[in-house]
Batch of 2 targets.
Target 1
Amino acid sequence: MTKTPQTLTIAGSDSGGGAGIQADLKTFQELGVYGTSVITAVTAQNTTGVAAIYPMSAESVREQLTAIGSDFEISALKTGMLFDPEIIKETAAAIQQFGWNKLVVDPVMIAKGGASLLQQEAVEALKIHLLPLAFLVTPNIPEAQALTGIAITDSASRHLAAQRILSMGAESVVIKGGHGKDPKYAEDYFLHSSGESVLYRSSRIATMQTHGTGCTFAAAVAAQLAKGEELQNAICTAKEFIQAALRVPLNIGSGHGPTNHAAYKADLAVKRGVDSIEVFR
Ligand SMILES: Nc1ncnc2c1ncn2[C@@H]1O[C@H](COP(=O)(O)OP(=O)(O)O)[C@@H](O)[C@H]1O
Ligand SMILES: Cc1ncc(COP(=O)(O)OP(=O)(O)O)c(N)n1
């Protein structure tokens, strides 16, 4: 009997349900994998912003990680909001202790409304302890700039930033383009330590319903990896998933609303050929 692939998200809770643990578990469910979770922080958050952050203690994070590691067979995992250096260290230690592979690190730093989801002193901890364990790192443009100190203004500086992130020990990186300036396209740039690069391009959707795009994208990659999909194809599926989720809005809340996690499976946009992803190798 084939078992459902088991996945893990290590991230913060978003009470509004659009990002964080909630987005990840919805994505896992939609893509047909079993989702487990370790909560690093509880945020009081809705579509208009983050009102408060309550980080979990390092001990409680360790206990959650141990509960998962001692019982589940995790085929792929992702990290999101890790908040402080202690939580990062516990996370890295558990990944090594339990031999978890196929780690997707979403280096979450700042929420759309401007709230800081990672302490300044945790950026170094992320680089030292977590990036060397990553199969894939998925920064958005501001996060890639913060990790590298390189201003991303064009494709050459984007490539340089990607190289710099790989030099921190990650096996591969995709710099997501949601924050890019191109009004026509949203481009995600992938670079592997072998030197292979891929550009994933979709049409840019004009919408306010973008809360949690990064979490959802990384969770979709992890889900596909757990099912055995090859990395570059998993990224393409994740891009299709987010394109569908943005294309068919839910119109929930008065601010940056959540994306529609059910749209991909419901075959509502991309899979009808309405909006396909272009891949440039
Ligand atoms: N308006 C948009 N139209 C199409 N794709 C988008 C849009 N905004 C973000 N994306 C896609 O969503 C994913 C997450 O990107 P991004 O928004 O940069 O991440 P984050 O949420 O971490 O800031 C990427 O695949 C990106 O290309
Ligand atoms: C609890 C929590 N985790 C992560 C985020 C940021 O998610 P992201 O996907 O980067 O989406 P936006 O903040 O850009 O909408 C969050 N807000 N809360």
Note: The chain has one domain: 6-150+205-280.
Target 2
Amino acid sequence: MSNNEQTAIRFEHVSYSINGKNILYDITGNVPIGKITTIVGPSGTGKSTLFRLSNGLISPDSGKIFVLGKNIEEYDPVSLRKIVALAPQSAPMIEGTVFSNLRLPFDLHGKAFDETEAKKLLHLVNLDPDLLFHDANRLSGGERQKVSIARTLANRPQILLLDEITSSLDPVSQQEIEHLILSINEKYKTTILWITHQMDQAIRVGDFTWMLMDGKLAESGKISELQMSDNVRIQQFIKGETK
Ligand SMILES: Nc1ncnc2c1ncn2[C@@H]1O[C@H](COP(=O)(O)OP(=O)(O)OP(=O)(O)O)[C@@H](O)[C@H]1O
């Protein structure tokens, strides 16, 4: 591969099926390092599956995946997930305080964790340090999502996978989270892959966009390039005429 330094994740003819049903088919593409790439496309088209492949939760039936130039099969799962971290839509919290939720990744990796470290993480996601000993499950949706993002950032991942992290939030929290992610990308040059159902969000935040349709990478590029596509289904999706 010629462009390792520029590529965070490379998919080479990646296919994945469940019980004989093709979920993803012959995906080839590069996710550029340090940029925000949004993943859009109709429901059930394989977007979350692409994420599970990217952090090694599942393996392709055929094809290869390279993370920072190295074949994903050569990573051990723990170090891979330190590099490629996933923030899910639901922002799941264990019972207990914000502090006990934030310490989870540290415990998992046998690393020391204290109040100073926890407050640094809250600061990173613009949350009030006074929230540290609040019940995590009583936070607002936006606050919970910020704690989830802080927890995902604990290992300073180079690649961040965001799976519809704002879809259940009110417009103000949604905007706050968008700003937060943009600032993390700018400050730490973290590569971001962001699944979103909202085309307007993809346009606002994405440097590049991948459009998945029927398990295939139908189009990829700058959103302005996708808007010029002569594929009618892509046009309809971008205009919000199909879901
Ligand atoms: N464990 C599984 N067993 C059977 N089918 C599955 C499994 N996981 C995913 N699928 C199927 O694979 C397809 C792709 O699912 P995936 O969640 O990747 O799509 P998606 O594009 O993220 O969808 P959405 O936008 O609705 O979240 C769907 O048809 C789904 O039903």
Note: Residues 18, 23, 43-49 surround adenosine-5'-triphosphate (CB under 6 Å).
